[in-house]
Amino acid sequence: MSFHSKPITxxxxxxxxxxxxxxxLKFYEEIIGFDILERTERTAKLTADGKTSILSLEQPEGxxxxxxxxxxxxxxAILLPEKKDLANIVVHLVEKGIRLGAxxxxxxxxxxxxxxxGNGIEIYVDRDPxxxxxxxxxxxxxxxxxxxxxxxxxxxxxxxxxxxxAKTVMGHIHLHVxxxxxxxxxxxxxxxxxxxxxxGGQALFMSTGKYHHHIALNTWxxxxxxxxxxxx
Length: 232
Prior knowledge:
This protein has helices at residues 21-32, 83-95, 148-151, 180-190, and strands spanning 14-17, 35-39, 43-47, 53-58, 72-79, 101-104, 108-114, 120-126, 134-135, 138-139, 169-176, 194-199, 203-207, 215-218.
């Protein structure tokens, strides 16, 4: 079953703001492995399959640096099709000197990094849904160290990382919010998502079609956190 195609409701595309378009394109092309689908002076649409944009960049007039402790993006998450892809990009990122975080969430294995503007990025691969543990309507997700030694047994040295695979999709998005209860009402009652995990009173994970999550929300920047400046 595909968790990222109709009739499932999911996040198919994310748009972020950047300070320096050329710097960002260099990062997203050379480090992450996107191709440019469309380009203007201040915008760029990025693609993995050459046909569909899953990430867009915008450099607004009067752009300012990312502001701390506000609502907005925690990270967007790029879902790779196979475990070998995650293994290959690990080697690539290390060779490029990119600072990484990594976790095993049982439902998935994930890498974490920032772009040049501090926008959070997750790159991950799902475990087979038959391995996900559900307790009623709640999925079991944890944060444990990623077993790099085991992951790297899947790498293909004869086919080193060069570009994102064509079947790469936007897997999910995770947001900082100011009020978890109001945000839950918006996404659940308003948009029809289902809660699949409650992390205390600090975070919610939501999906349709029994995915582990298409959207996550947290108050880790503080309850009542302010909105960021429009051009940050």
